[in-house]
Write a structure and sequence with these properties.
Blueprint lengths: L5 H10 L2 H8 L7 E5 L7 E2 L7 H9 L4 E7 L5 H18 L2 E8 L11 H14 L5 E4 L1 H13 L5 E4 L7 H6 L5 E3 L9
Parallel strand pairs: 1-6, 1-7, 2-3, 3-4, 4-5
């Protein structure tokens, strides 16, 4: 299921109800966790952990270049801005077919307010999976969230993990902890299994 209705996305984001969103996804416990190692492929246009304008992605796609986009949320980001960005990414993915990955990235926080709360992390993952076409990988930021939150994010619609090339954690064991197998994908997203 995908939606680019900004109002519906704002409702989902504002509800902070990742469990309900995950149930709506109809999670497939047999779906393997896609593991991508290292940075996005050199030939891609990539946001990394900071958003670039949608027009930069559109221009790359017009030139035949796939892209990875960041979706920043949490401290300082309004639900309206988040919903508009997500709706724009969903529309772009449907239009061009060249958006390969969306990284959900919590904003930098302050001593009083972290970049995100755990429920925000899961809500954004679940809402992203609902909004984006199935062939776009939804990947939580391993750098910002760490392995434990990324593991849980799989149950809320994350496609898999993009891990540092030198990650020595046993990812097969990490996936097995949530009843999943691993599907190694190299460095580029080959899409959900």
């Amino acid at each position: 299921m995908s939606t680019s209705d900004t109002h519906e996305l704002r409702r989902m984001l504002g509800a902070h109800a990742p469990v309900a969103a995950a149930r709506a996804l109809g999670d497939d416990p047999g779906r393997p966790v896609l593991v991508l190692r290292g940075d996005v492929p050199a030939g891609w246009s990539a946001d990394g952990h900071a958003e670039r304008p949608l027009e930069a992605h559109r221009a790359a796609h017009a030139a035949g270049t796939p892209s990875q986009a960041a979706l920043v949320y949490g401290h300082g980001v309004t639900e309206e801005a988040l919903a508009e960005r997500l709706a724009g990414l969903a529309a772009l993915a449907a239009e061009t077919g060249l958006l390969r990955e969306v990284w959900t990235v919590p904003a930098d926080g302050t001593p009083e307010r972290p970049g995100s709360w755990g429920v925000e992390d899961l809500t954004v993952v679940a809402t992203s999976r609902t909004a984006l076409p199935a062939e776009v990988a939804v990947l939580p930021s391993w750098h910002h969230l760490g392995h434990a939150a990324c593991q849980v994010a799989i149950a809320f619609g994350a496609t898999g993990w993009r891990v540092p090339a030198d990650e020595d954690r046993d990812l097969v064991h990490l996936a097995a902890g949530i009843g999943r197998a691993v599907r190694e994908g190299g460095s580029g997203a080959e899409g959900p299994a």
